[in-house]
Input
Amino acid sequence: MSSQAALGAKALDDRDYPTAIEQLTKALATNPSNPSPLWLIQRSTAYQRSAQYELALADADAALHAAKSRARREFIATAHFRRAVALHGLKRFGDARLCLTWCRKSNEKEKGLGIWQAKVKNDFDKAEKELGSDAPEVRTTVKEIPDKVEENVKEKSAPLATAAQAPAPPAVTSKEKIRHEWYQSPSSVTITIFAKGVPKDKAEVMIGEQSVSLPTYIFFNAKAHNYQLEVSFPIGTTEQTYALDFSPLFAKIKPAESTYSIFSTKVEIILQKATPGRKWSNIEGDESSLQDSSNEPVGNVMQAKTGDKGPVYPTSSRSGPKDWDKIDDADEGEDQDVNSFFQKLYKDADPDTRKAMMKSYQESNGTSLSTNWADVQKAPVPTHPPEGVEAKKWGS
Output
């Protein structure tokens, strides 16, 4: 590989598309009569990711000819794939779908093929429904073997265009200026991240449910379900990454019905509430917000509903349930002080401290409690039973 091609490939990996186009153009100029299909595919990718779809298509067509002349089946498949992606950018969904079919015929394991087939099919069906079967978006005019690249170059001056002639990449919001806002309706919570130039192919949005163990002094039943939202995406061509993490969310959601969309100036996330009508006072939750739809605590505590007696718990004792009201006042006061201390510690802690407390307590089987996330995240927390006590697994 030439030094220019190596620099172009690195710039492509770094998402520096103008540099990638410039260096790959120089590399291709060294042998214009027999260009490398790989370099053409890489430059087509750089053009496509900088929204220069006509140039991307011309390079993908050229890559297909170069791959066929060298009998490189893997590049033939990738060239068809790059043609499809460029055609999708031009809103030629019928042609894009056909190119993906040719790609699958050459290599059904082409990276990203399944995702793009689903995406193109969705856009094709939508366009056909809204615009009709005769619309340019759904017609198929593309050829499996395109016209000679030289003719395309002469007509459009496409593949030989330099970085200086290329339009500037889309504006990108710097990391320190990205902000988010949220609002809610009775049925959903909408979170908007205001950021320009978020790359759709690089952004990650995770909306899901996670079962975690919680300290018994926070919940009587130590199992709870956290619903979380994680968002991350690179900032332009820099090495910075923006990340937003709400874990746990304030209340239960329906992950399968929640959605997100990436626009040119923002990312919009719509979380569907599991309990319609429940008002969220914040996006992120704590032990006081992790309640079910009936607003009962997450645990299985059996609270007394009438009278002044305290809670009654299931028991196998022959003498019946224990009357907790008769516990020695001094011991009871001491236990309440300890519980109050840990509850306040958890409530006032930052997210990393809470994660450290949960992880250490869960993994150590209730024998350790740490507030140092930097230390806890490195490895599982071992069980440390009190002196004279042996730790055994259940059933052993």
About this structure: Residues 312 and 322 are 8 Å apart (CA to CA). Residues 175-272 form a domain with the Immunoglobulin-like fold (CATH 2.60.40.790). The longest strand covers residues 223-234. The two ends are 61 Å apart (CA to CA).
